[in-house]
Amino acid sequence: MFKSIVVGTDGSETATEAVRQALDLASAVGAKVELVSAYEPVPAARLAGERRDAPEDVQWAINPKEDVEATLNDAEALAQSKGVEVEKFSRRGDPADAILDVAEESNADLIIVGNKGMTGAKRFLLGSVPNKVSHHAPCSVLIIRTS
Fold first, then answer.
1. pLDDT category, 13, cuts 50, 70, 90?
2. Strand order across the 110-114 sheet
3. Burial of 58 (0-12, 13-18, 19+ CB in 10 A)
4. How far, in Å, are 10, 22, 52, 72, 147 from residue 15 at the CA level?
5. Mean pLDDT across the stretch 121-143?
6. What are 81-127's pLDDT values in tens digits?
7. Are 78 and 22 in contact (CB under 8 A)?
8. DSSP readout, the chain?
9. CB–CB of 55/107 below 8 Å?
10. Lower CB density within 10 Å: C or N end of the chain?
11. For residues 46 and 94, what is the distance between their CA atoms, to the nearest angstrom?
């Protein structure tokens, strides 16, 4: 049925629920999951200050993608506990674009996103991740009720 499922996460409670449900489905059907998280670059001055204030042995880990990597690692640990094969993608830029790009590149069969931002007047705002993904996806989309 599904061989490749893409799911985006920002580490929020609602995104984590979408990841959990994607992993449950992947486990049931034997699919691989592509975990996607997007980031915006951190200003160089902030990075330099954080590196300067950090102990020497961890300064190498302070980079523009550090928060995204932690988010993806948490989701990967959840996947491993369920026995699901995953691949992680950290992408610079818009979260919806990141999800759509990975889905296209991996020839995904399904994209799973949470419904965060799709209730009330917010559902009409441009930029909503689930809204944009649902309109531009190269495959089927499952929107999980997470809120």
1. confident
2. 86-92, 32-39, 4-8, 110-114, 140-144
3. exposed
4. 6, 10, 33, 11, 10
5. 78
6. 999 999 999 998 888 999 999 999 999 999 999 887 544 444 444 44
7. no
8. --SEEEEE--S-HHHHHHHHHHHHHHHHHT-EEEEEEEE-PPPHHHHHHHHHHS-GGGGGG-STTHHHHHHHHHHHHHHHHTT--EEEEEEES-HHHHHHHHHHHTT-SEEEEE-TT-SGGGGGSTT-HHHHHHHH-SSEEEEE---
9. no
10. N
11. 21
Residues whose CB falls within 8 Å of the CB of residue 128, separated by 6 or more in sequence, listed in order = 117, 118, 122
Q: Amino acid identity of 52?
A: R
- Side-chain-side CA neighbours of 21 within 13 Å: the count stands at 18
d(CA 34, CA 2): 12
Distances (CA, A) of 1 to 26, 32, 113, 122, 130: 10, 12, 18, 33, 23
The CA-to-CA distance between both ends of the chain, in Å, stands at: 27
Q: What is the pLDDT of residue 5?
A: 98
pLDDT at 66: 59
The overall pTM is greater than 0.85: no
